[in-house]
Amino acid sequence: MSDTLTTNKKLLAWVKEVEQLCSPDSVYWCNGSQEEYTMLTDTLVKSGTFVKLNEDKKPNSFYCKSDPADVARVEDRTFICSEKPEDAGPTNNWFDPKAMKEKLNSLFKGCMKGRTMYVIPFSMGPLGSDIAYIGVEITDSAYVACSLRITTRMGKKVLDILGDGDFVPCLHSVGVPLKANQEDVAWPCNAENKYIVHFPEEKAIWSFGSGYGGNALLGKKCFALRIASYMARQEGWLAEHMLILGITNPEGEKKYMAAAFPSACGKTNLAMLTPSLPDWKIETVGDDIAWMKFGDDGKLYAINPEAGFFGVAPGTSMHTNPNAILSLHSNSIFTNVALTPDGDVWWEGLTKEKPAKLTNWLGNEWTPDSSEYAAHPNSRFTAPANQCPVIDDRWEDPKGVPISAILFGGRRESFVPLVYEAFDWSHGTFMGSIVSSEQTAASEGKVGNICHDPFAMLPFCGYNMGDYFQHWLDIGKKEGAHLPKIFYVNWFRKDENGRFLWPGFGENIRVLKWIFGRTNEAATAEKTALGYMPTKGAIDLTDMDFTEDELRKILNVDKERWLAEVKEIREFYKKFENKLPKGLTKQVDALELRLKNS
Questions:
Q1: Catalytic residue check, 265
Q2: Which residue in the list 265, 388, 451, 461 is annotated as catalytic?
Q3: Residue 441's pLDDT is what?
């Protein structure tokens, strides 16, 4: 047993309580040192969980593959256990907290027998920041301990700041106790009994059965979004599923923007954009989560609560996102990707030419003729954020960075314009509430079906989303606030032949340049039924094989399609019943009226 490292009475009592419940063989308090990390990775290599990668290819990096039954977040096993079901709302799975505690206590009883119980203090956000919060995860997974060292600020330095203060308790177990002399498996999990459970009123998280990703790394979606969103509503701030980027123009003026996109809509690519316009610069503060609080000057200041990237590997390449690839050169963990014969990693989309031979994520021999994927579609890389070549100088500023613009966007193939600006904060809140994507393959459901994901928060809001909408509207009423402007973008519009109309990737800087100009009224716009849109010539098309006429095509407002969309929005809003804010009903009424009068 390691030193306890703290005198915090609440923490010591909780650790003792969990130890008595879970019956581990030993208790280890993580201090966050490099020596400790090496000890943990050596343990995982010895157990067969980790394979050390080639030092010449990926120094101090590791490959692992999970159990095939444990490969992604499990939304149907994710619960919000608020005291009242209406506080969880229609977009969450609710369970009575007392009944859930009984169920979990029976599962956790003795669940760590034969294992080490790791106590992992971590800070979400820069150490000592007024925007940051501290959590402690107890787990029986060394994989989790290693991953949290990369994705959070972790160890003794966190306890030094915590002192006798409060923290968010996060309890996790893979749910596979070991009998005396029983040999462990490389990836223990309890596939039949997965529970990812949030108790908002207690600000506590319990996770059982899964060792993978957001199910096990409880600082990420569980704390930084579900519990933090609940805390943010109570305390008057915002915890959002948003990237944060810094953008600098050729004159050296810099602004910061946040953006919320559902999965598969290019969030990490935008956060690490390589601009096609000369002398414009994009730098990354964060690629996934933003916590924003008001400063003394009335502006919203944002931090990235994470310290590392936990990104989807397939599709990430030097072509799509060179800065992400350059972030993975060392000190990284790769899960469920493919392994090359020379001890490196590969995944679909990494290179144009497929390797002749691999070991795929299932452990099978793979060639380009194989019917299986080489890497699982949800395979991941875990890498320190400070290794990103375009990490922003202020990414760890405890004060955060001032946000000038907030972007929303989904994957819409038809009629949603490339970019438009909200009339005001309430209208921007409405735009966030209607974020959606079209299903594009029969396997995902009927082609053209609308998948609503308001604010890209549908799986991550820790309370009733109707109340969440109202919280956003209330933020806009804060006295003395200097609020960011809000925009909607859509990179994915296609023509009748299924060809993307906008080239995307590095060319998206041209849209960001217009948004940059709109934050100080330097760029021109005209009023439309949807919002303010770029006037002719306002989007810089210099050196593009792209005409102003083509741009107009992806900026046009199709009145009839939008009136049909209004009906779709009203239908979606019905699920929130009496919790839907009147402010949003007014917004959809106003949109319909503007369309009819246009």
A1: yes
A2: 265
A3: 43
